[in-house]
Structures are given as C-alpha cells and as structure tokens.
Specification:
alpha+beta
Length: 127
C-alpha cells in the first residue's frame, strides 16, 4: 500500500477492526489515500465514510461546502450520489441533526469519529 504518511500507526474502524478503504474514485480522505483516517493537522476530522446522497450534496452546498462542482485546480471531479467520501465528523453530526445525513460505512469509518458521534448513532445510520 502506498502511504503518504508512514509515521501513522494502522487505524482502526468504529467496530475495533482494521480500517477499510472508503473510496478511490474519486480519491478521498485527509491523506487522499482512500482511507478516512486523520491526524492532529486535520482540524475537520475527515473520519466518517459515507455514501453520499443528492440530499446531502445539496445540504453541504447550502452550508458553504460545494462537493458537487468539479475543481480541476485541486484534481477534484465533483461528487455524484453513490460516491463514497470521507466526511468531517462534526459536519456529519450536524447533517444528522438537520435530517440530511448520508449513510455511513462502519468498516471504513475511523474510530476517532467516536469522539464526536456515538457508535449507536453510526450503527443506526449504517449503509
């Protein structure tokens, strides 16, 4: 596995197992390695692996984070419903509270998300 941050220990998911890949098309994650793993530099905590929905994409854009529009300067093709994407844990919780949270892939959600979101809530919204 190519790893852009070799100093990071292996991450675990919210189930206490090795963290699985969230998505590679488009490439996601704080480290853009397909994994929803974070470190102290990731102030947004991109730890929740989601299957994005049209409703969430509209919601995110309304919050000032347009994930649908391509940004070629950042090699970002824009997301489509059904894509797998690492979402910031606080943003996912906010979307949940507003009734717009996308489904979560527990196997690919880093255990650090549990600092923000309960396992029960994540399980209730599992893909």
């Amino acid at each position: 596995m190519s790893d852009s941050s070799p100093s990071l220990p292996p991450s675990l998911n919210v189930l206490g197992e090795p963290l699985e890949v969230c998505g590679c098309q488009p490439m996601t994650g704080w480290f853009r390695d397909g994994h929803c793993r974070t470190n102290a530099a990731d102030l947004g905590r991109h730890s929740v692996c989601c299957v994005v929905t049209e409703a969430f994409l509209r919601y995110s854009a309304a919050q000032g984070n347009d994930l649908s529009t391509p940004a070629p300067a950042y090699d970002f093709p824009g997301l489509q419903p059904g894509d797998h994407w690492c979402v910031c844990a606080p943003r996912w919780l906010e979307a949940y509270e507003d009734g717009m949270a996308p489904p979560v892939r527990l196997e690919a959600t880093e255990d650090s998300a549990l600092d923000v979101i309960s396992l029960e809530l994540l399980r209730a919204n599992a893909a």
